[in-house]
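Narrative progress, year one. The postdoctoral researcher (J.K.) led the effort to move from monomer predictions toward full complexes, under supervision of the PI. The following entry was the first complex the group processed end to end, covering 698 residues in total.
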Amino acid sequence: MVIVAGKGGVGKTTVTATLAVAAARAGRNVLIVEVEGKSGLATAFNRPALGYEEQDLAPGIRGRTLTPDAALRDWLEGNGLKRVSKRLVQTGALDVIATAVPGMKDILVLGKVKGLEQSRDADLIIVDAPAAGHALTFLTSAQGLLDAVAVGPVRKQAADVVEMLSNPARCQVVLVTLPEETPVNEAVDTAFAIEDRVGVRLGPIVVNGCYPELGLTAASATAAAAHADGELIDVFVSDQEASDLAAAAAFRAERTEIQLAQADRLADSLPLPQIRLPFLFSSEIGPVEIEQLADAFVDSLAAL
Amino acid sequence: MNTPNLNDVVDHGSIAVCCGSGGVGKTTTAAVIAIEGARRGRRCVVVTIDPAKRLANALGLDELANEPHRIDVTRWDPDDARVEGGELSAMMLDTKSTFDGLVTRYADSPAQAQRILANNFYRNISSALSGTQEYMAMEKLHELHEDGGFDLIVVDTPPSRHALDFLDAPARLLRLLNNPVFRVLMVPTRTYLKIAGAAVQAFIRTVSKVIGGEVVDDIVTFFRSFEGMEEGFRTRAARVVEILKQPETRFVLVTSPRRDAIEEARYFAEQIGDHDLSVDALVVNRVHPQFGTELSAGLRARVETLRELELGRETERQARDRLAARYQNLAEFNEIAERERAQIETVRVRTQSAAVAFVPYLPHDVHDFTALAVIGRILFAAPDIGAKPPPGDG
């Protein structure tokens, strides 16, 4: 099982889809579990939005949602309360319980994921974890509950979840970040917090949105150099175009340098293998783009 | 000259609510608006929710104070160029102590307040319940508006999964406090428990078994202690909504041109409309520059033509490849620029007459007053600066 975590806006869902495609290529049967109930995951595969029932997303890849409300309903049904479960969820009883026992929702969801894992229905389960600061809470809630609740089925559930999370053969967390200052700082903080407080094994960290190398050097980033290259091969480059080419090349060179510096800083602060995924200039993230990213992912993994 | 713009927000707004999804630069935008207001002679405060560490340091928010803290004028106005009377304060919202203040205010007696504040269930509500932060941000806004002595209050809003949590949070919390199942628990006699029906009884028994009797006791105690206080909360929540609807309140929708952020922004814009409110300004951060006017499709065709050139000498082939790489690079950036402008347009049509301002993709993070001033110049430099996307560097 792999849990994909990262702050909002870093491309967590895209990375989830990429991981799934890379794993499916290796012949693994993948199930993606979306715990927020709302994301562009299905769009990446050109499929209608995910629901509670599993659906096929691509050959070897299935997907479903798993929200706390649905997990509670399943849990109540499993405890002989099927008749009242719907009404209790509707009346907002879950909110009261979840407030009384912080982490209850996360435990219900993770407990259900554990059930899916143990059913061996898929070779690999990829969990698209909640965004923002919720990811850490999501992962620490089981341990927190274990510390707080002395006995009973919730404690048992929490203990099972902690066991699953802390067993590196069963579970890994893949952090996603961007090669920029604030996302790098947050990834470092999150990584240490996850290791210290959850004891989960961290897999490689994915650095998303890296400008691909184009072979443009600083010397290429002047209008004169563009003119010179054009003259050498007898291709006309207007003055306006030469200056646009130069400005764009300078922009990319500056950005690439900043990105590399941030990725290096991340490597210095966090001793984890890095997988760098390219920034995609295309307008939509669809199946074609996910395949491209999966290529880059596989190459990057092989180079580690 | 009647088109609304960001000048209107800082000159005539008494409240500016910055909303948008996480990671789009909401806090930064809020700070820039407050600084500009102060430069123009108004007494401004920026209420931040969860600022990135270095920005918090810059604003002097190292300590959670939950009260506005005046920022030394030499820091935000080093050139001494402000209009007389301008002041800048900042604060970071402390959800729990704001909630504690509310309980203390509405409790009938100090003893009742004490009982609630000491209750475990209350502690969870005030610190961990989702929606509480949004609610308290609005509560703080109310407090500062009623007796803070500020001309302009700029509030950041928590990054929510749901568009307008800050508008709906008070109502949702009240619903929780009035939960039919748990109201039953407030009534001590068994007779009522019988009336409550088998389903509720079974549920409560199960809950006790699962989460433990102590936790259920905490819940019961909380609901009993809270009895009679809902009315005060409800009135206050209604007042917050009123404040948000008054004409001097401005909504600033902040986004980045990324597809997911744009989708959220569109949704926000619709929701704000559904609440009979309007977006007064749209700020788009981190917009890529467009270099020149050539479209990406033509540039890509140029790359193909160049690559097909058959050349004899190695130096020529190198020159060809370098030139093709330059064109590809230009095509890629202009493609992003085209796509971003198309995305932004889909939000702009939904925000109707809102002022639109673009902030270019800057090379470094914004975490000091110098960088905030740079953004301020971009947002406020000229009356029509927001009308067009930023030009490329070239």
